[in-house]
Specification:
This protein has 120 residues and is mainly alpha-helical. The chain has four helices and no strands. The protein has one domain (2-95). The longest helix has 22 residues, at 51-72. The radius of gyration is 14 Å and the shape is elongated.
């Protein structure tokens, strides 16, 4: 899930820069990461339900909303969809008894070696 955290952050900065191709790429990568988590860890420690059920339940809607916002190139819709994804991640963490792992909207960019602006 560390890669998922990185993708969540990079998605945010791509959306803030209105770099819609990069944002779309990061959504694809997030979705692949969720699929890998389910494939490689179908159950998680003390989770009362398998990840094969929980991850799609919590992420499918926000991922679809992000894709739609990116397609419309709407920063306002993107922000709402990204925040919905963040809430979904936290809800999934609660559902899997992993609530001590709280995801938030990024506040600083550790990727000083990447330009998030769209190419001109």
């Amino acid at each position: 899930m560390s890669a998922t955290q990185m993708r969540h952050l990079k998605l945010w900065y791509a959306g803030q820069a209105r770099n819609w191709p990069l944002a779309g790429y990061e959504v694809d990568e997030l979705e692949e990461g969720f699929a890998d988590a389910v494939r490689f860890h179908p159950e998680h420690k003390h989770s009362p339900r398998p990840l094969t059920e929980l991850v799609p339940e919590f992420t499918a809607g926000p991922i679809a909303s992000l894709r739609a916002a990116i397609g419309r190139q709407s920063q306002a819709d993107f922000i709402a969809a990204h925040d919905a994804l963040t809430r979904a991640c936290n809800a999934c963490h609660v559902a899997t008894e992993f609530s001590f792992n709280v995801v938030v909207r990024p506040v600083s960019n550790p990727y000083s070696n990447q330009n998030f602006e769209a190419p001109r």
